[in-house]
Methyltransferase domain-containing protein
Amino acid sequence: MALPLDDATDAGSDVDMMSSGRVSPAPSLYSFHSSIDGRTILRDLHGRILNNSNDVSDYSLIDGITRIHVSTKLYMLPADGEEHDRLDLQHGIYTLSLGGLYPAAVREEVKALLAPRKLGRPAILDVGTGSGSWAMAMAREFPHAEVVGMDLAPVRLVSSIPSNCRFEIDDANLGFAHYQGSFDVVHARAVGGGIRDFLTLLAELANTVRPGGMLLFADGEMQLYDENMQPLPVAEPGDELFSWTQRVFHATYHAMKSRGSQVDTPSLLPTWLSRIPDLHKIGSQKIFIPLGPWKKGDPREEALSEMLRTNGLMHMAGMKPLLLEDGYLADTVDLWISEAQRELAGLTARLYTRWSFAWAERKIEESAAAV
């Protein structure tokens, strides 16, 4: 939802910063108006602020009438200042692990797509922009390009927004018909938890990219790995391979899965991308990062792992509302999280995380390529 320009003057300072006033590419079809109570967008749940949209419902047809049996929130991680701090940190992890804002394997292609041109301006879409860090960084790296960041919740901006960047409130599950053929680069990072049908999303995003344009994806797996980079099994307290951190991640994985979230996206993305007829030149990369600086010898990896430990400590605290809503007792959740945080702080478990990156290019039609 782009903020309409005629509402910008009375929407309040937090919302004023959400739009640079640019109207190209076309704004979202779903507009936010300042007269709407903020509680329609955000809600307080178990001491954290979460988005108030992204519903998934079960329907049935009874006597010719469609009835909703169950309506649940698909994305259940926070959308407050604490979470945005974590997302800023996570942005640093992604950037340091890749050595830039996008994978080295496609760096030259991305730069070529976003190079200045005589007619029009290059355009970038950041789906699930979170704190807006990636969108604003790209706007600064490519000041001649238009950058649009969209998310379920408002972006908390603590610094001035580049003039070539704007943010919109929207649900990616609603589709992108208003953005067909509008962007040269489309980026989506850690969005699987809020998507009910990722194949449909990929097809939609492929349509937003101009011929020859590129899709970029990144996500961290919920599966943790042991010090030999082997999947850590689910174990019970007292077992040799038991980890409280794994217990929290495992419970969170199943809680998200039960709501319909596409939490297996990181491992399946290359296969899914290959099923979209309009895409080709599909590539992927996986990076293992220690969860905490228990492995010594590489200063860059040690810095990454320390950042990741801090991210993990914050992330597990943010999992609490989801676990409580999934039916776990508060005492149980508090025990799991406190023990997992103690485990991470003391580096008593040598764990790896795995981060997945994937990309694809939209095909250029033969008739267009021949011109």
About this structure: The first strand starts at residue 42 and ends at 45. The chain is about 35% helix and 20% strand.
